[in-house]
Specification:
One of its GO terms (biological process) is mRNA catabolic process. This protein is of the alpha+beta class. The chain has helices at 10-21, 30-40, 97-105, 121-127, 181-195, 224-246, 260-273, 283-289, 295-307, 341-354, 361-397; strands spanning 2-4, 48-49, 57-59, 68-75, 78-86, 109-111, 114-116, 136-145, 151-161, 166-168, 204-209, 215-220, 251-255, 311-315, 404-413, 416-421, 427-430, 440-449, 454-462. It folds into two domains: 2-256 and 313-395, no CATH class; 264-285 and 401-462, OB fold (Dihydrolipoamide Acetyltransferase, E2P) (Beta Barrel). It contains eleven helices and 19 strands. It has a five-stranded mixed beta sheet with strand order 2-9-8-5-4. Strand 16 and strand 17 form a beta hairpin. The longest helix is centred in the C-terminal third of the chain and has 37 residues, at 361-397. The protein is globular, with a radius of gyration of 23 Å. It starts with a strand and ends with a strand.
Length: 465
């Protein structure tokens, strides 16, 4: 982790420039805000009363757009996960002002100094958010998780819930959580390993604001509380996907297997980094054995993530089985409707199916149109994230021109390659011939352009691995 000293306020100016460049609109048109204000006053009338159930939420401490709350109870050898998802659809009229604006945005966009919400804050951070300050409408997915970690939907209903606590990843204690929380997460994670899933989360390169107004650039490994909480979303999304697939409808998250050439390049990287990868071990098993606390293994985890083809959305098609290679399963997004447009329609479909009703035509039509909308939104979010990191790296290394840096080559092509600096959380591009993935090299920082968010490195003498 490195603190960014930004005496001339370049970072804040750069973030403002990124917002302009990518047309990040944190505000909403007055008519949309007015419609949201009216929608927030709606009193639910089609919801069961589940306020007696001990739901809690678990999120980053500063989050106010809370999509999920949960409680867990035993049922013989199974565990019942009651997973309450914010009922955004209760507040949003099809074709109305809020709906049209959400289709324009696609998803919430995040920057270190704020975000651009998918829905107006009066909904996404108040009336529809599962905060512990009063009853909230939700769609409750009841997922039965067997001892082997497989889940299926036992029921879906609209319900009023009341969260008992807003728990945070970095401060939560086991005693704050339902008694079976850790066991449920263990079951789901064991099932992942059993089916050969490769959902391994490398440390994230991120920029965060500090209370003193400065920023930090860091590789942040996922906390165990985050991983366990993600298991709840995972088993719910898998169960939703199974129900949609069985009924011949839905929208799925799909991803292809990495190409064999990419796997061979990764084996070379592992050898260069000094990380043992037995010939007989698959990429999936190898990934699960890596630990983010080791800098070389963390660099390799990032290389594996970049080697994949990326995920996209696809509607159900007769005769085709949607597949997510990293999950090793059929998978759907349903558990973050405050932040992703597609989830609202997936929830709507599964609510009807589970209760013996046909999927509304508006949802079926949305499944055909959503892939283009969501892929565009995902692309913009990814480009913004990379631009923010490029900016932070430029500010962090400004004034160090002429200095030598040791780095590991993580990717190489005919034009050069990508390198991971050994002493800074920085991933950079190096234009140089003869780079070999896994090689440890020395580079000289030739130039920093904070306005263009670029670092220019030159190859120095070769370094011993």
């Amino acid at each position: 982790m490195k603190t960014i000293v930004d005496a001339t306020n370049v970072l804040n100016q750069g973030l403002a420039a990124i917002r302009t460049e990518f047309q990040v609109d944190a505000s909403f048109p007055p008519e949309v805000l007015a419609a949201a204000q009216q929608a927030a006053a709606r009193v639910p009338s089609a919801h069961a009363d589940r306020t007696a159930s001990p739901f809690v939420t678990l999120d980053p401490a500063t989050s106010t757009d809370l999509d999920q709350a949960f409680c867990i109870e035993p049922s013989g050898h199974d565990l019942l996960l009651h997973y309450a998802i914010a009922d955004v659809g209760w507040f949003v009229d099809d074709g109305g002002l809020i709906d049209v604006e959400a289709w324009r945005r696609g998803e919430t966009l995040y920057l270190p100094d704020g975000k651009a919400n998918l829905y107006p804050p009066v909904l996404s951070e108040r009336a529809a958010s599962l905060l512990p300050d009063g009853p909230r409408p939700a769609i409750v997915l009841t997922v039965r998780v067997d001892p082997g970690g497989a889940g299926r939907l036992d029921g879906v209903e609209r319900a009023i819930i009341r969260s008992r606590a807003k728990l945070a990843y970095d401060t939560v204690r086991p005693s704050d959580l339902p008694a079976s929380f850790a066991e449920l997460a263990r079951r789901v994670q064991a099932a992942e390993a059993q089916r050969g899933a490769a959902r391994v989360d490398p440390p994230e390169q991120e920029v965060t604001a500090r209370p003193d107004g400065r920023f930090e650039l860091a590789f942040r490994p996922r906390l165990s509380s985050e991983a366990d909480n993600a298991a709840l979303s995972l088993v719910a999304n898998l169960a939703v996907a199974d129900m949609l697939q069985a009924h011949g409808t839905g929208l799925f998250r799909v991803m292809a297997e990495p190409e064999e050439k990419a796997v061979q390049r990764l084996r070379i990287s592992a050898k260069g980094l000094g990380v043992a990868w037995p010939d007989a071990m698959s990429l999936e098993d190898f990934e699960r054995a890596l630990v983010p606390d080791d800098p070389r293994q963390a660099a390799l985890m990032l290389a594996i993530r970049r080697a994949g083809p990326g995920a996209s959305y696809a509607p159900w098609r007769a005769g085709a089985k949607p597949w997510h290679a990293a999950m090793a399963a059929t998978y759907a997004h349903a558990t973050a409707p405050l932040r992703r447009l597609a989830d609202r329609y997936v929830l709507r479909a599964v609510l009807e199916i589970a209760n013996g009703r046909p999927v509304p035509a508006v949802a079926a039509q949305a499944f055909e149109a959503l892939p283009a909308v969501m892929d565009r939104a995902d692309s913009i979010a990814g480009r913004i994230e990379r631009a923010v990191i490029d900016l932070a790296e430029a500010v962090l290394l400004s004034g160090k021109e002429g200095s030598l840096f040791r780095a590991v080559v993580t990717e190489a092509d005919e034009r050069g390659g990508k390198v991971q600096l050994c002493d800074y959380p920085v991933v950079a591009r190096l234009s140089a011939k003869g780079l070999t993935p896994g090689a440890v090299i020395d580079m000289r920082l030739a130039a920093v352009d904070q306005l263009r968010r670029t670092l220019t490195f030159e190859r120095a003498e070769a370094a011993a691995a």
